[in-house]
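G.,

No rush on this.
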Amino acid sequence: MPAPTNPFKAALARGDRLYGCWAGFAEPYATEVLAEAGFDWLVIDGEHAPNDLRSISAQLGVLRGAASHPVVRLPMGEVWAIKQALDIGAQTLLIPMVESAAQAEDLVRAMRYPPEGVRGSGAALARASRFSGIPDYIVTANAQMCLLVQVETVAGLDALDEILGVEGVDGVFIGPSDLAADMGHRGDSAVRDVQDAIRDALARIAASDKAAGILALDPETAARYRDWGAQFLAVGIDVVLLAQAARALAARWRDG
C-alpha cells in the first residue's frame, strides 16, 4: 500500500484554482469549523499563531478525511521541525522567508527520504504511516510531499527566477506584508511600488511550472491577485473574521 495521494499537490499540478483560509486559533474545534465552511485548503499557522507540535497534530487529526487540505506553516525550515511535521501527518508545508535557490533546495531535501533527501526514517510509529499500517510508506512518500516556499523580501524577489528553477518546489507564496515592510512601506502593501513588485512576481511564477500563491483579506484585492496569476489564494484569517464580526455586532447594539 502506497502513501496517500496528496490532493492539494495534484490540484496545483492540474492548474486548479484553490481558495483557502488561515487557521490561527491553534484549536482543533475552530479549525474543524473552517473545514465545514468549504475552503479548499487551510493554513495551520505555526509562525504567527500560538501553535506547537501538539496543537498542529490535533488539527491535522480533525482534518483527516476533510475536503479542506491542511497546509502547515512552520516558523522556520529546520530539518528536525520539518521531520516532525511530516511524521504527524502533514503532506504540505509552507516555509517562510525563503531568499535563495540553495535554501529552497535544502527544504526539498528535508522533505524527502534518502537518497533524494535527508528526512529521518522513523515513520513507523507516526500518523504519517498510519502507525505502520502503510507498509510502503517510506518508499512512496516522497512523491506526495508538497513544498510551498514564501518569498517576502527584496532578496527573495531578486532570487525568484533561481528559486523557480528548483525541482521539488511546488508553489511560491508571496507575502505582501513582509514584502512591504522590507521595501520601506511597513504595514502598507497597497502602495504602488509594492503592488508592482507583487504583480511582476505573480506573473513570473505563473509563467513557470510552479503555482503562485498569496494572501488577500478583501475581495477586490484577492480578485486583482487572481487576475495577476495567483492560483492558490488565502482569502481570510479566522481570528480576523471573528474580531471583525464581534466588533460590528457590539457596535450595532452599543452605538445604534
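When you get to it, here's the other one too:
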Amino acid sequence: MTNMVAINNQHHANLRITEHAHTQGANQHLVPIVTSEINKLIVHYPVVLTKFDDTGKFGLSALLGFEEGENLFWQQGRWEAVYVPAQIDRLPFFIGSEQQSDTVNHVLCVDMDNAAVNESEGSALFDNTGEPTAFLAEKQQILAQLLDGESQNQMFIETLQSLNLITPITLDITFENGANTSITGLYTVDEEKLGALSANAITRLHTEGWLQTIYTLAASNAQIYALIDKKNKAIKQGDAWFEN
C-alpha cells in the first residue's frame, strides 16, 4: 500500500528520508528501466525486454534474479551495486498529477507509508530557507528522467520492431548445486539480424541515436553469467547457514 501526498516546503519542512527507501525493491526480480540509463546498467545488470500481460506491449527491464521475488543485488538489507536502477533510486518519491483548469500538471509526491519517511533521521528535503536540498533535487532529476524515458522507451521499442530486431530468449540454467531453472518470457536484440541490416538502416539508427543503445542492450546479455555467479554464491551461503 502507498499513501502518496504532494510535497510542499511548509507541511514537510521537517521530513527526512533514511537509506531504507530501497527496501521496496528487495523482492523484485525485474525492475523497469529507461533507455537513458542503459549505459550505467550494463556495469551490473542484464537488460531485457518483457511483455506486459494486459497489453502485450514490450517494456525494458533489468534482470535482478531468476525467480519471482528474488533480487540477488539485495544483500544484508541494502542494495549491493555501484548503480541502482532509477525506478528504485527515486523511492519513496513519485510523480503525481493535478488538474488545473484545462491542464494537468505534474507534482512531486512522497509515499508517507514508506518506512524510510520520518522526521528524526536521514536526508532532509528542505533547508532552513525552505529551498530543496541537494538530496531532493537529485530525486527530482531521477523522476524527470523516468518521466521523459516513457516516450523514449516507446520510440526505441517501435524502432526495434520496425526492423524486426526483437527475439525471444530462454535461459536454461544449471546451478552449482545441481538445481535447474528454465526462464521464458524474456526478449533481447537479434544480433544476427542486427548484423545483416543494410547500410541505410544502420545510418538511420545512428542518426536517431539508437545504434549505441542497441549494441549496449545486446552486450548486457553477458551479465547473465555474473548473475548466475551471484546465485551460486547465494546458494552456498544458504547451505553454509543450514550446516551451522
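Residues 4-243 form one domain. The chain has a mean pLDDT of 91.

Enjoy the weekend,
O.
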